[in-house]
Backbone:
């Protein structure tokens, strides 16, 4: 086996005489970041200099370095001796493409109890252009965190897939982030978090089947789908963010929470109403909850929903508590945590969200201590008792096509011909493109369409096979 390198720069292949000369000739400067080349798909520890296996590079790289996997000829690195550990404050991994390389564990039932990547630094763990799968974060007691990826800092994932991972707490704790956990933040870009689970034994709760972020969550041009939170209890099937969240040009779909927030659970800190949830040019569709609010539940002090589509989310129940009932809409619900919540709705479509056979799309707390105010314009909210902005289109069926790839990196719902949302929206944000991005213009016609999808000039989208509308209330 090659001699293990220290993370210190002095052990790097640099001529001592040159280094000494530079030190005498100029003021002390920060060491240049190094690039470590991974040249083998062996999951063990082997290497020399700055070249070797992934574990070798992860062990010896210093903070700020880059680990380069782009030259690998194989498609899989199979971990058989646990997670790859990264102790650097900040580190970057570059792969050859999310469909070209997968780092996978051996999770099968309850065996091989370890995740894929563990980052203990408090800086940025940047992963680009690869996938991870079949990791398992297991805690016999306490919290299980991050089935695929754990970062004690910020998990920054660009063009990354996270699939079939699990966080499981056996007793007296929580399972947080079946796919990804970030203690400071989780930032997704052009990434997919799919088919992950956060759950626990007995009454242990699952939080964030796909993603758990303790402070901040950002998703851009990404998909969070098919994830599950909870066995007996669960919150945030797709995403649980304990802080502020931003979803831009992304799709949150087909996620399940045992309790509340099938798609997104945005949970503000109880000591402050300063956090914000922003959903912009995005789709939240087909998520479900075992109790209330299949789509988005939020108790942040400020909520922005702009040019977005929130539809076809379901919940088992439509009301919470005793008389006077507090209704929790299956689509979007603001929870009763603060005295004042400000909601801005701009050019957004919220419809076809159901409990049983009835539809209820947007709700606010009934408690007199909580005041929710709305502003904005040009929305379609089919079924609500909330005091939404004047001019909001109600009752009308939006005539939506099924969720599918209509172009671009994420799935969307097309507005079919004769939809009441066509040319009835606005573009006060000055967006250039709809959710699908270039070349799909955000305004194509006399005015912007309502929701995340813009019908392009010349498109002919027929109504056959469209998803119908349920009974109101």
Residues:
């Amino acid at each position: 086996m090659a001699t293990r390198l220290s993370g210190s720069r002095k052990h790097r292949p640099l001529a001592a005489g040159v280094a000494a000369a530079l030190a005498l000739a100029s003021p002390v400067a920060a060491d240049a970041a190094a690039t470590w080349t991974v040249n083998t798909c062996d999951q063990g520890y082997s290497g020399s200099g700055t070249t070797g296996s992934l574990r070798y590079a992860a062990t010896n790289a210093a903070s700020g370095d880059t680990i380069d996997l782009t030259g690998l000829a194989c498609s899989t690195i199979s971990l058989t001796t646990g997670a790859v550990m990264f102790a650097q404050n900040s580190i970057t991994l570059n792969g050859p493409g999310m469909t070209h390389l997968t780092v996978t564990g051996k999770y099968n039932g309850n065996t091989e109890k370890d995740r894929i990547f563990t980052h203990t630094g408090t800086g940025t763990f940047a992963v680009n252009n690869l996938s991870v799968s079949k990791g398992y974060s297991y805690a016999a007691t306490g919290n299980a965190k991050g089935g695929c990826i754990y970062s004690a800092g910020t998990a920054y994932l660009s063009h990354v897939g996270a699939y079939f991972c699990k966080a499981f707490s056996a007793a007296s704790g929580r399972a947080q982030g079946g796919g990804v956990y970030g203690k400071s933040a989780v930032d997704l870009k052009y990434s997919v978090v799919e088919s992950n689970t956060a759950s626990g034994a007995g009454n242990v709760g699952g939080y964030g089947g796909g993603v758990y972020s303790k402070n901040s969550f950002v998703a851009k041009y990404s998909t969070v789908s098919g994830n599950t939170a909870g066995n007996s209890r669960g919150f945030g099937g797709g995403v649980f963010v304990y802080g502020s969240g931003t979803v831009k040009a992304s799709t949150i779909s087909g996620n399940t929470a045992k309790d509340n927030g099938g798609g997104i659970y945005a949970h503000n800190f109880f000591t402050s109403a300063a956090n914000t949830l922003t959903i912009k040019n995005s789709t939240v569709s087909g998520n479900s909850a075992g109790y209330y609010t299949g789509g988005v539940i939020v108790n942040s002090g400020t909520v922005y929903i702009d040019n977005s589509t929130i539809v076809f989310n379901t919940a088992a129940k439509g009301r919470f508590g005793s008389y006077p009932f507090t209704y929790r809409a299956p689509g979007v619900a603001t929870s009763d945590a603060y005295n004042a919540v400000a909601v801005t709705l701009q050019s957004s479509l919220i419809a076809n969200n159901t409990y049983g056979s009835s539809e209820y799309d947007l709700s606010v707390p009934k408690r007199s201590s909580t005041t929710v105010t709305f502003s904005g314009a040009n929305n379609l909210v089919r079924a609500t008792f909330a005091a939404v902005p004047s001019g909001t289109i109600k009752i009308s069926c939006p005539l939506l096509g099924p969720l599918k790839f209509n172009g671009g990196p994420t799935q969307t719902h097309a507005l079919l011909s004769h939809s009441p949302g066509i040319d009835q929206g606005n573009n006060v944000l000055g967006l250039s493109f709809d959710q699908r991005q270039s070349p799909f213009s955000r305004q194509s016609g006399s005015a912007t369409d309502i929701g995340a999808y813009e019908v392009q000039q010349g498109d002919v989208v027929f109504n056959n096979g469209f998803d119908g509308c349920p009974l109101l209330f």
In short: The two ends are 69 Å apart (CA to CA). The first strand starts at residue 35 and ends at 38. The first helix runs from residue 16 to 25.
